[in-house]
Amino acid sequence: MKMISVYDSVGSILSHDVTQIIPGEFKGRLFKKGHIIKEEDIEKLLSIGKEHIYVWEPEEGQLHENDAAIRLANLVLGEGVAKSEEIKEGKVDFFADRDGVLKIDKEELLKLNTLGEIIVSTLHNNTPIRKGEKIGATRVIPLIIEEEKIIKAEELIKNKIIYVEEIKPKKCLLITTGNEVYSGRIKDAFLPVIKSKLAYYGSEVIRQVILPDSKERIIEEIQKGFAENVDMIICTGGMSVDPDDVTPTAIKECGGELVTYGSPILPGAMFLLAYYNDIPILGVPSCAMYSKRTVLDLVLPRVLADERLSLNDIAAYGHGGLCLDCKVCTFPHCSFGK
Length: 338
Description:
The chain is an alpha+beta fold. It contains eleven helices and 19 strands.
């Protein structure tokens, strides 16, 4: 790459994007890499402080920022992710190519970003994502980078760092318990909440059954769900530690594997998760009826993406598991669950 005076640049080809910044009004590309300088461009370049431009003359062992960014994108991107067709100012943007849950290998990402002169930036791991949403980007810091640095990155990173787990529609059995609901003294408020949250991800409640606080009846209905081959069972009501709240005990005794009863998430401390073979059973506490965001919003998309959650997965939510109940909710693009 060589530097020439703007006044001598007519007919030359830019080797990099030229950015214009007008404070408070505009920041973007004034000229694109490959642009052929014309006489009328000289004044524009001078107005942004460019008295010289650079013409890159390739040398062996060096990469232009655009070429390096493409190699980095190809290195880190896995299934369910697309990259921008246009490279702007040496940066490649990443977008979700399907609805799902964004997965980031944070350890591998840290390795890559500690190499120096290379950056990859993403949204948080486990963020629910819609197709087309921007989820990350990559670029190199210098305009020209030693190819050896990119080769080192390619040798270091063995697995894809960024991918989107696809959410699969599921049919759910909803079991609502509580003597007060069963007797008709109060109206069930869980069904519209659960239906709405499932529908957002293309899933549905195929059947709801309302039961008294009877351990035997709850076990019976859960086992009926197994026989019906439902994809998921959600139990609501009776999730606290009161003596007559028997739903957790019923779930534990239905023949499945208990993952956890309790979570470090607020709202949602009394959450329960179990599995019967591949069928997840969620015990959802009453906070889901009145709180805008709860443990259910964090766990549900991962369950719908067929991720088998462990106790460690739930315990990890202690860091970031406090919902601030903001007046204007921006979930999932907030600190909750991150």
